[in-house]
Amino acid sequence: MTDPLLDVRNLRVAYPSAHGYSDALRGISFTLGREKLGIVGESGSGKSTAGRAIMRLLPPKARVSADALRLSDVDLLTASEAQMRDIRGGRVAMILQDPRYALNPLKTVGAQIMESYRIHTRAGRAEARDRTLAMLEDVHIRDPRRVVDLYPHELSGGMGQRVMIAMMLIASPELVIADEPTSALDVTVRGQILEILNERVEAQGAGLILISHDLPLVSDFCDRVLVMYGGQVMEELAARDLSQATHPYTVSLHASLPPLDHAVDELIVPEYDPSWLTEIRK
Amino acid sequence: MSAPSLEIADLSIAFGHGRARVQAVDRASFSVAPGDAFGIIGESGSGKSTILRAVTGLLDDYEGGVLIDGQMAPRPRARAFFKTVQMVFQDPYGSLHPRRMIRATLMEPLEIYRLDRRDDRIAQVLVDVGLAPEYAYRYPHQLSGGQRQRVAVARALLLEPRILLLDEPTSALDVSVQAGVLNVLNALRRARGLTYVMVSHDLRVIAHMCSRIAVMTQGRIVEEMSVEDLRAQRAQEQYTRTLIAASRAAVTAE
Fold first, then answer.
1. Which residue of chain B has the CA closest to A214?
2. Is pLDDT at B180 greater than 90 in this prediction?
């Protein structure tokens, strides 16, 4: 195997709180090649913080430290803000949960996608427009010529998320971080969006980090899964083995899901073992 | 057989006028027997929450009938109506007043309805939903999402209604927290013989909670089925099959 695309070792993030700093991430480590990695966990487990730390998008007051945080040849910890501007959107793209909040409501779809392309390439206006139309077609938008001139409020949720994928992938990033890309969408649209995302990521040979709270979805979609709790990685396993997970946290997370095939009298409410919160020493 | 606890007959609701008119609910009918749990499932915009809002009277401009115990519900809804029917809303972050202590929020219905033993009732209802009575002295921001939703359920239960309308009660919660809230709701229904009408987009939740399920799309109820049929995927309508397939897609991996 070649050098990993992303190398994260002992990443720690702390936010200021009323009583000094409180830890959001307490030493997580993983590497990512050109594959699909899922990060699952409940709210507050630190999964989104991990994604944002890679993009260096945390609030300035957050305290970040790591033994290593590298994107192939770039050290993300020491990179200058100018370098980071190239990396964000250029080499690493982030897809957020709700297109209604993530798109600029005052600019047309086309203008936003073109902007993202022209910032990261030296393309002229005409070329950018052609690429934008092609990209919209790539995310299976039926009538790109009409859609480029629409404003975000004129789009449905699924269409908005396609536009976001187009905008994020047009600069051909090496790494895509998708933070709950489908949780604001209806189930019937969810599958299509994931398929499109998968198709584009594979076509461009990028790595993908899918952050989600949805265990079945992640096990279906990803190659490898990190299960997080309390700012630490509880377990790392191949996605298809998720149902045979051994860590009690993963097992209980699975059991708390209402089954679709058979009736149960009472759902299992996960009980948290305080020992999961003590820091794992390596 | 006694009259159904709740019956909706040919309910139609439209928003807007002229060309902007949208038929949000189109001649929907169903009835729920006492002590039963009825589920409505559909995508966003299908009109499922609109039905609940019409039942509570939050939307007064509807056509058709809303019958409680065989009696037409008064329009506008009278005070006595809410002793029978209460609603729990989707977002526990939005449905509790942020600057009022839980006790003040829970006290309000008791004052309006001039009930006695107010502090006892509040303590009891908090225990019923699985919270310690001391939670009455907290503010919403001091509670987790699951605890807030339990408070919202407690508020609805204070007037001892027989019918509880649940609008996506767990969609803002983690699955692990959802499990606890659903267990509380199920236990309460069994213990008190409550009638539930529950709206959700999550097939798993609906299948776990309800015995009969209506499938809605574009304002119409396209199919009504039992939970056994849903689990066995015995659907008549194409739309229902699509919906089940989409919800099961991720299940096949298990």
1. B175
2. no
Classify A6-276 by CATH class.
alpha beta
Residues of B in contact with A256 (CB under 8 A): 175-176, 178-179
Helix, strand, coil shares of chain B as percentages rounded to 5?
40, 25, 35
pLDDT tens track for A125-172: 999 999 999 999 988 888 899 999 999 998 888 889 999 999 999 999
Q: What is the pLDDT of residues B43-98, one digit of tens each?
A: 888 889 999 999 999 988 899 999 999 899 988 888 889 999 999 988 888 889 99
Does some domain include residue B253? no
**Whole domain around residue B37: which residue ranges?**
6-248
- Token pair of B249, please? 């897609």
**Chain B residues near residue A273 by CB distance under 8 angstroms:** none
Query: Does residue B1 sit within a domain?
Result: no
Chain B residues with beta carbon closer than 8 angstroms to that of A269? 176, 179-180, 183
A190 and B246: CB-CB below 8 Å? Answer: yes
Whether B227 sits inside 8 A of A261 (CB atoms) is no
How many structural domains are present in chain B? 1
Q: What is the dihedral of CA A237, A242, A246, A250, to 10 degrees?
A: 100
- Mean pLDDT on A193-206: 89
Residue spans of the domains in chain A: they are 6-276
- Cα–Cα distances in Å, from B170 out to A46, B149, B153, B179? 21, 8, 11, 9
| B111 is a domain residue | yes
d(CA A266, CA B183) in angstroms, rounded, equals 6
Per-residue model confidence (pLDDT) at position B87: 93
Q: What is the mean pLDDT of residues B235-248?
A: 86
ipTM of the complex: 0.73
CB of B152 within 8 A of CB of B170? no
Selected residue of A260, A262, A265 to mutate for chain B interface (largest B Cβ count, 10 A): A260
